[in-house]
Fold this sequence. Notes:
Chain A is α/β, with parallel strands linked by helices.
Amino acid sequence: MGRSTIEELRLLTSHLYGKIIQNINSTYSGGGVAEILSRMLPLLEQLGVDARWNTIKGNPEFFKITKKIHNALHGRKEDISEEDLDIFLEVSKQNINELEFYGDIIFIHDPQPVVLVSKKREVNKKWIWRCHIDVSQPNQMIWNFLEPFIIQYDAVVFSAPSFSHPLPIRQFLISPSIDPLSDKNKELTQDTIDSVLEKYGIPKDKPIITQISRFDYLKDPLGVIQTFEIVRKSIDCRLVFAGGTATDDPESDKVLSEVRERADGDPFIHILLIPPGSDIEINALQRASTVIVQKSHREGFGLTVTEALWKAKPVVASAVGGITLQIKNKFTGLLSYGIEGTAYAIRTLLTNPEYARWLGQNGREHVRYNFLITRHIRDYLLLFLTLEHPDKDIIYL
Amino acid sequence: MVATIEEHILKGTNSREAMPGREFSFMKSVSFVISTPYIAHDLREFVEALRKISLGSLYFHVFESRLRLGKGLNDFTIWLQDSLGENELGDEIARLDPYTYTLEGLRSTFIQLIERRIQ
């Protein structure tokens, strides 16, 4: 990142002087949204932007329902009753009453707080809904339920073109990002990497295939194990499946126990529950890996893919959601379809280390130019400025 | 473009479909044009600014200008020729095919050409 990048950001922020950007989501920790906001807000502050962050409140029942809504938006079949939707609306109403809407731009992240826009008529201001998840093929019932709220926003932001829907409001495409200086992405010494491997009992005797993701059916953890078993028939290797949980994801414990049961007794499969905040450990596991996999059924963007590419690792990932923006097939990684296809791609990389290295280097450059936090901040600043100039395709500042 | 594709479809030889996730998405853009603090009065100031401007600024003056001016020209050539009378240097820059360079590569090439002229 050069001086010109910072200067460009400062030029843009000068046009937002005095404006308050109020971010609202459902959790301060766990998952990509909280991670991005926690890295981005201090940088915005340094640039002179008054960006703040609030979260909505909800009981476990509310978050169980929002998880079902999340899954349904990803296209998964979910049993969502009228009563569930009533509870969702009731808790949203409580949040509307309790939250103070002080921002000039109210920036709502993901579906959990989407109903807050009902307050728009009263507080006015500009409202943006930032949808971080893959809504390319949503459950139509739940999309129809949410759409009357979504269309009240001034604009909606998606992470990939395929998530766009016919809506009467402006839609923007903004990819998420990683912070290269964060604990999760900064360079590590070999000693640090080795100590993390030692801590989790992972010998360095074989190539390591890794998937880092939450314990979530949408990340297909059982499919990853099946894939590994196919690969291992011809190549001696280890599998590391490491992830954490989030306060707004009540399903992860169930998934974790199923995964542990499936992997039970196989000394070459390492299932690791990583506590929140263990960013150095995630970083080390990624850096220790020979190949990184992201075998998701759906993926809002796949920041774990971005992290792996930034570390110049060869990546095999499903062609879903925002992953196709990151993996340019056979140039920055390999896109895969199904268990057999993923196994084949992993085997290709394990048997062709030079090719794997070349993909990894290309991936790192792709992230450098497209998915670092400075580009993300610039896009958000431009988005905020766009709201001041609705209906214009060329804006002179 | 439409006619060519329709003709191809009518031949009935291509029924291939893109794999899921690899479809073509049609996009629309919003452009922002912002003044930067860099102003050049002569070649020396110009080359110094060229080292400092963002790639976005370079893109605007080299690529976007080709569409905006509608003559396949870039802003740098026009300024060098119209304001400094540097016709040869302007032509040299105009003759470069910017699509065969990376933006950083283009910046370096411009700088080299201008520095050679200054010397």
